């Protein structure tokens, strides 16, 4: 076992496992040891599922030895944000309210991962109920950013971002209602894909806001996200938001030329609506140059101001969240952390007509986005307007953010690392596409990653602690 | 003496420690500004929200026999 084994991508590890050069048990055991050594400072795991993970890895190993190879996730350790229901295993939402909540069934996506042979290695930290964080008044501490432990990892899929970046699992599941896959992906320097609304089942994931929630993969690379999407995507007739559409071959779409691809630049998003800091803006401009060097063309486009997306997203998400939590938060508010308590309670003050008018405006924004995608193939923005701030500097997001746009429109959107700040924290690029053209978005992300060298750099935190541990 | 905001909270069945009330009030003010925005937008009487349900036809044995 070499330290570098922890940093294998899914594509690399699965190639070795398929060739029987890497044992799933050895790989899983290595991650378990690493979590035990390193996570005491990172706090990315709520529960390490050591026994069941090793049993699943042993089963995978036996199957593969017997000639039954299920595909690229067979024997691969995957972590779950702790709002994915797991049969017989607590699903806490990082909350005292649900600390003893043990579901009877797996979420549909968890079952799909298990059926594909993945090893579920543990349940990962989240902002409480995917909304309030980072918080220090919950039963478990908040995850930290492996690039600098004094900085936030983003959220709400905070443990997923931190664990993947630190090499504590090969891939992870996150959820995204306003950016909760892409924000931690951006802060932790990994790839995070929010699928098209309806492409991945939400059944069995604890909801925050039904009409904005998405489940999706968080991995070191866009290629790995594509491999996970192959397993995760598919119609679920029991999820009312699920779309009955064909599932593409995500991996087959990778590696092709992006020559002639038309990229829409929404310059007002990061120049006036939410001014990005100088390093973020420079990294974004450099990223567009990289895509142009691969044959893409750029086109300036104008959309509604970011604040309009934020207003619609916040009105809908707060109203839907309060509808879900009313019976609990009015009876036992003390079982919520302060941040979640405030965010959820705020929805009580909204009028029904405001919710409906937000949904009416949302339809207008969806139509506007569809019109924009008549002239471009991909929309590119910075993934976040700055690198990860330190804890305490920006605990509550109250202004608009780049990611909410594509929750409102339901478009597929991917965050990839596009450089580093002067103090060594990751910067990010967001790529969005037409509905159900997730494969095209992942293709562009993969092409970008392979044209740059940002995937060769891992957090010093993980390196230094791993060396110290040995 | 209860403030107007505290009275609204009480009417909604919400309870918070006194020190937390200004933080909730700030978030509510943000949402009220967002509400004012969606109310202010000119729109057709006919404009539909994005939450209409979409039903799929169901094929029953009876329908199949008729077909």
Describe this structure in words.
The complex is a heterodimer of chains A (470) and B (67). Chain A is 40% helix and 13% strand. With 470 residues, chain A is α/β, with parallel strands linked by helices. An eleven-stranded mixed beta sheet of chain A has the order 1-3-2-4-6-5-10-11-9-7-8, with helices on both faces. Chain A is globular. The termini of chain A are close together. The model of chain A has no long low-confidence stretch (mean pLDDT 96). Chain B is an all-alpha fold. The A-B interface holds A 211, 244, 307-308, 310-312, 314-315, 318, 329-330, 333, 338, 341-343, 345-351, 353-354, 356-364, 366, 396, 398 and B 8-9, 12-16, 20, 23-24, 26-28, 30-35, 37-39, 41, 43, 47-51, 56.
Strand content of chain B: under 5%
Rounded to an integer in angstroms, the radius of gyration calculated over CA atoms of chain B is: 23 Å
Percentage beta strand of chain A: 5-15%
How many beta-strand segments of chain B? 0
Tell me which oligomeric state these chains represent: heterodimer
Mean pLDDT of chain B: 89
Number of strand elements of chain A: 11
Helix/strand order of chain A, N-terminal first:
HHEHEHEHEHEEHHEHHEHHHEHEEHH
Given the C-alpha coordinates, what overall shape of chain A results?
globular
What structural class do helix, strand and pairing data of chain B support? mainly alpha
Task: Let me know the largest β-sheet of chain B.
Answer: none
Flag low-confidence runs of chain B: none
Largest inter-chain interface? A-B, 38 and 30 residues
Give the averaged pLDDT of chain A, no decimals. 96
Helix-residue proportion of chain B? 40-55%
State the helical fraction of chain A. Answer: 40-55%
């Amino acid at each position: 076992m070499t330290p570098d084994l922890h940093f294998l991508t899914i594509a690399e590890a699965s190639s070795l496992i398929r060739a029987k050069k890497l044992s799933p048990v050895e790989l899983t055991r290595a991650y378990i040891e690493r979590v035990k050594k390193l996570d005491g400072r990172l706090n990315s795991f709520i529960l390490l599922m050591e026994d069941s993970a090793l049993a699943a890895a042993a089963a995978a190993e036996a199957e593969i030895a017997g000639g039954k190879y299920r595909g690229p996730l067979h024997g691969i350790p995957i972590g779950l944000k702790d709002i994915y229901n797991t049969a017989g295993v607590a699903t806490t939402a990082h909350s005292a309210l649900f600390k003893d909540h043990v579901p009877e069934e797996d979420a549909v996506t968890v079952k799909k991962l298990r059926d594909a042979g993945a090893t579920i290695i543990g349940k990962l930290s989240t902002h409480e109920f995917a909304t309030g964080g980072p918080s220090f008044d919950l039963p478990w501490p908040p995850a930290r950013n492996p690039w600098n432990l004094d900085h936030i990892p983003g959220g709400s899929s905070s443990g997923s971002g931190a664990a993947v970046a630190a090499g504590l699992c090969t891939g992870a599941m996150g959820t995204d209602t306003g950016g909760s896959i892409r924000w931690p992906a951006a802060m932790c320097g990994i790839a995070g894909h929010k699928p098209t609304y309806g492409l991945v089942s939400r059944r069995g994931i604890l909801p925050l806001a039904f009409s904005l929630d998405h489940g999706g993969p968080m991995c070191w690379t866009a290629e790995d996200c594509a491999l996970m999407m192959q397993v995760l995507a598919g119609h679920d007739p029991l999820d009312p938001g699920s779309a009955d559409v064909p599932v593409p071959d995500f991996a087959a779409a990778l590696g092709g030329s992006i020559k002639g691809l038309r990229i829409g630049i929404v310059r007002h998003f990061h120049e006036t609506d939410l001014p990005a800091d100088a390093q973020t803006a420079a990294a974004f401009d450099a990223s567009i140059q990289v895509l142009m060097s691969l044959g893409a063309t750029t086109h300036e486009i104008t959309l509604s101001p970011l604040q309009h997306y934020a207003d619609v997203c916040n009105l809908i998400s707060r109203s839907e969240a309060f509808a879900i939590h009313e019976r609990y938060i009015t009876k036992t508010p003390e079982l919520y952390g302060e941040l979640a308590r405030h965010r959820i309670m705020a929805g009580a003050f909204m009028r029904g007509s405001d919710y409906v008018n937000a949904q009416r405006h949302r339809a207008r924004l969806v139509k506007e986005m569809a019109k924009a995608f008549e002239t471009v193939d991909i929309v590119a923005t910075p993934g976040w307007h700055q690198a990860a701030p330190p804890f305490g500097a920006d605990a509550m997001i109250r202004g608009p953010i780049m990611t909410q746009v594509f929750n409102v429109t339901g478009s597929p959107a991917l965050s990839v690392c596009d450089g580093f700040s002067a103090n060594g924290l990751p910067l990010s690029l967001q790529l969005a596409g037409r509905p159900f053209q997730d494969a095209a978005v992942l293709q562009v992300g993969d092409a970008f990653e392979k044209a740059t060298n940002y995937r060769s750099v891992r957090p010093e935190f993980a390196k230094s602690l791993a060396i110290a541990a040995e | 003496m209860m403030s107007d905001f505290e009275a609204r909270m009480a009417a909604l069945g919400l309870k918070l420690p006194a020190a937390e009330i200004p933080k909730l009030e700030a978030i509510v003010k943000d949402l009220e500004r967002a509400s004012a925005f969606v109310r202010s937008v000119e729109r057709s009487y006919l404009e539909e929200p994005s939450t209409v349900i979409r039903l799929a036809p169901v094929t029953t044995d009876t329908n199949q026999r008729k077909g």
